[in-house]
TrEMBL record:
The lineage of its organism: Bacteria, Bacillati, Actinomycetota, Actinomycetes, Mycobacteriales. Residues 24-79 form the RNA polymerase sigma-70 region domain. It comes from the Bacteria. Keywords: DNA-binding, Sigma factor, Transcription, Transcription regulation. The keyword Methyltransferase does not apply. Belongs to the sigma-70 factor family. ECF subfamily. PANTHER family: BLL6612 PROTEIN (PTHR47756:SF2), BLL6612 PROTEIN-RELATED (PTHR47756). This is Sigma-70 family RNA polymerase sigma factor.
Length: 405
């Protein structure tokens, strides 16, 4: 008999390692999402009992794959339509070979692109990705996105139905569509990361899931630089997480305690970024990661390479035009060329109305005005930002700045 705690630890580790692979290969062979998830869950439930009795297998992933396949075969045999499908999918009956778990990544890649197909609503892509690839429960996804569980369940049901009814192909898109579809996949992963990158403990698990999935994508697409760029960006942001807030109040970059930044994550993020840049096809995520690396590797704000950051933002604005990118570039210009130069760019954005209602526009303007000694104007801008701030942490920070003025 194996101790229950050891079995639980082994099952938890296997769940993390092979859930997405296992579901992906079952979906690939049966084209039945619910059947694949049910059989995968059954396999893990069986492991909790069998491994305690018979011991933990040397290759847990292969054991789970075999068990899930057998459950799928049994389910199909009991169903008339399933028996037809079973004859068409005779390959399902084969026992997994020694390297079966390692051969699944192609299926997992197909699953990522299917979950993130542009025909699905964006919210459904996010939910489906977390459910099928990361193995989060419907309740966990609903809690993370502050949505009622029945609502999230319906979202998942509709997404699976859409895939079946619209005949969305279970495949990696052809080369001529890869760039467009890869961008959609990366956008989903980055949204998942950002949803978890806040002060709410209940949502922080999302950042780990996003980093994990970005790592999977980077490994499965070794000749594509942007998945590595996104992974590097996530790692570099995650390295600063512990210092972003203090007692529920937002802490700006210049005031963060850099001795508390996770140097291991920074080292990993820079290494992944170097791998992406070595492919010599720069993209938006690589540029954002390069900006994050400039911040993460600088000893302090004063010695940060602000001219380099301004240049990177200029290139980012060329590749992915955005008023938010222009706002960030204005800050970098202010730090490298002087406050008046940065303020001029911010005022241009405000006059154009491109960021109306976006709290960081008046917040940025207020900060630059404060640095320039224009206190009365800074106070008004901080008040505007406070009215628009979406989180309590930001409101507390802006309130403190007002008090200081």
């Amino acid at each position: 008999m194996t101790r229950p705690d050891a079995v639980r630890a082994a099952v938890d580790a296997a769940y993390r390692d092979v859930w997405g692979q296992l579901v992906a290969t079952l979906i690939g062979q049966t084209r039945d999402w619910d059947l694949a998830e049910d059989c995968a869950q059954d396999a893990f439930a069986a492991a909790l009992v069998t491994w305690q009795r018979d011991g933990i297998p040397n290759r847990p992933g292969a054991w789970l794959t075999t068990t899930a396949r057998h459950r799928a075969i049994d389910r199909l045999r009991r169903d008339t339509a399933g028996r037809t499908k079973l004859r068409e999918l005779a390959m399902l009956a084969r026992e997994p070979q020694e390297s079966s778990v390692q051969e699944i990544p192609d299926e997992r890649l197909r699953l990522i692109f299917t979950c993130c197909h542009p025909a699905l609503p964006f919210e459904a892509r996010v939910a489906l990705t977390l459910r099928t690839l990361a193995g989060l429960s419907t309740a966990e996804i609903a809690k993370a996105f502050l949505t009622a569980e029945p609502t999230m369940a319906q979202r998942l049901v509709r997404a699976k139905r859409k895939i079946a009814e619209a005949g969305i192909p279970y495949r990696v898109p052809p080369a001529e569509l890869l760039g467009q579809r890869l961008g959609a996949v990366l956008a989903v992963l980055y949204l998942i990361f950002n949803e978890g990158y806040d002060e709410q403990d209940s949502r922080r698990a999302l950042t780990a899931e996003a980093i994990y999935l970005a790592g999977v994508l980077a490994r499965l697409m070794p000749t594509e630089p942007e998945p590595r760029g996104l992974l590097a960006l996530m790692l570099l942001h995650e390295a600063r997480r512990a210092t972003r807030t203090d007692d529920g109040e937002l802490v700006p970059l210049e005031l963060q305690d850099r001795s508390r930044w996770d140097q291991a994550l920074i080292t990993e993020g820079v290494a992944v970024l170097d791998e992406a840049l070595a492919l010599r096809r720069p993209g938006p995520y690589q540029l954002q990661a390069a900006i994050a690396a400039c911040h993460a590797t600088a000893p302090d704000t004063a010695t940060t390479d602000w001219p380099q950051i301004a240049a990177l933002y200029a290139e980012l604005a060329r590749l992915a035009p955005s008023a938010v990118v222009e706002l960030n570039r204005a800050v970098a210009v202010a730090m490298s060329d002087g406050i008046p130069a940065g303020l001029a760019l911010v005022d241009e954005l405000a006059a154009a109305g491109r960021l109306d209602g976006y709290h960081l526009l008046p917040a940025t303007r207020a900060d630059l005005l404060r640095r320039a000694g224009r206190v009365a104007e800074a106070r008004l801008a901080y008040e505007q930002a406070l009215d628009l701030a979406p989180t309590e942490a930001e409101r507390r920070y802006l309130t403190r700045r007002l008090r200081e003025l």
